[in-house]
Amino acid sequence: MVGIVSYGTYIPTYRIDRKCIADAWGRGALKGERSLANNDEDSITMAVAAGMNCLNGRARESIDGLNFATTTPPYQEKMNASLISAAMDFGREISITDFGYSLRSGVAALKAASHSVSCGATTTHLVTAADMRSAYPKSDEEQSFGDGAAALLLGTDGVLATIEGHCTLNSEIMDVWRKTDDPYINMWEGRFVQNEGYIAHVKAVIRTLLEKQGLSPENIDKLILPAPTEQLFSKVVKSLGFNLETQAQPSLLSQVGYCGTAHPLMMLCHALETAKPGELLLLAAYGDGADAFLFKVTDHPPQRHCAVRTESFLKTKLMLPAYGRFLSYKEVVTPLPGEPFRLMPSATATWREGDSMLRCHASKCRACGCVSFPIQRICPQCRSKDDFDITRLSDQKGKIFTFTRDNIAGRSDDPIVVQTVAEFDEGVRFYGLMTDCDPSQIELDQMVELTFRKFYDGAGFHNYFWKLRPAREDKGE
User: Fold this and answer.
1) What SS3 state is found at 183?
2) Residue 312 or 350, more confident
3) pLDDT tens digits for 34-75?
């Protein structure tokens, strides 16, 4: 039976206290904090991070499908999933699809992947979802939104949770929307949005699914109900007859915020991290209607679970100290740029060097074993020519060999650039910029890992490359 084989979330390192946002406007604050993508992150880089967390070293050759869902794609006309596929080093014959335009696109991608595996079109299908929505400054949504990503691997071998049932309810309703030229989301009157939109559709789709499956709320072990606010979450859980304390999966709203398309899958991943064999999980997601899924946890040992659990992401964070930096990272204001890049970006060069730049491939000399990054046709050690094998660095962890704190090159909202050389397995060294860190805490021999990031914009397109960051340890319980 088709089901979830592996899973993984990704929550950016940066958070901001909602009181910090509120104080800037002299208004009341919502409780808790929200996650914030770094200035070199977007929905593509977060999806890559979640996907790699989900795969956790799994052979890339075994993946033959990839779905990517977001309402905030870096490219409006270009396959975003193709860039994710390259960064994750998937084969070129993999089936890829972009999903978007609705907060339900994450679960739509999940449903499509399930159908693909069921009919045999693909055998192991990765579903990724990521969002970093923007709201009007001073609005409640500016505080309540969050940035994040999640990934699920679907297949039929080694299934951790089977898909037992599904129900869809579609509706044409103008409650939350964003036109192509809108920088922020628009919402209709609050009571209409909640009562005629979210509450009506979520309650209807959950009740329909339970009826189809011959179940009642008492039979469900975990209700996974993404909601834009904590009050709405509690209200719907109780009104459906579920126990808020024992059955409702934690919403993540006070710790991360509402992460749009990614939020249903993030909550599902979080639930799977503590799920027990035989438990029934009910997931419902809203957006121009609603979808509901029923999962049953198997007794298969989770040998391929995520590398870093959600609880670890929640504990590993850096607090953003000022609202001005928040606005800068959200691209509401433009910071004073740092040292300009003197590289002339080229679509041709990116295509030609894509194996190193995007797939993070290094060359290993067959004659002497020397590993070089980027790929070198001539071995720098023994000078043999075109006699090498390809090895991937993106899965490896290394140690800082040397570094320099540059106080001049950075932009005004992130002034210190840590130029770093890290040493990985077999002595290969990688020169790159450090990200997601406190520059004062960087030291020699510190463990680091590679992360796919947006480097700069030039020639009318986004330029991506790999950076280094302090290695994240799994601190989940």
Assistant:
1) coil
2) 312
3) 999 999 999 999 999 999 999 998 999 999 999 999 999 999
Q: Closest Cα partner for 417 from 316, 341, 334, 332?
A: 341
Pairing, β 65-69 against β 125-131: parallel
d(CA 456, CA 193): 38
Q: By C-alpha distance, which of 477, 464, 472 is closest to 10?
A: 472
Using CA atoms, how far residue 183 sits from 41, 72, 196, 388, in Å, is 18, 10, 25, 48
What letter represents residue 426's amino acid? E
Report yes or no: 123 and 2 within 8 Å, Cβ to Cβ: no
Separation CA 169–CA 202 (nearest Å) = 9
For residue 385, pLDDT over 60 is answered with yes
- Name the strand (E) or helix (H) holding 34: strand 33-36
Residue 289 one-letter amino acid:
G
**Confidence at 380, pLDDT banded by 50, 70, 90:** very high
Token reading at 104 = 């339900």
Across 351-370, b (16+ Cβ under 10 Å) vs e yields: eeeebbbbbbbbbbbeeeeb
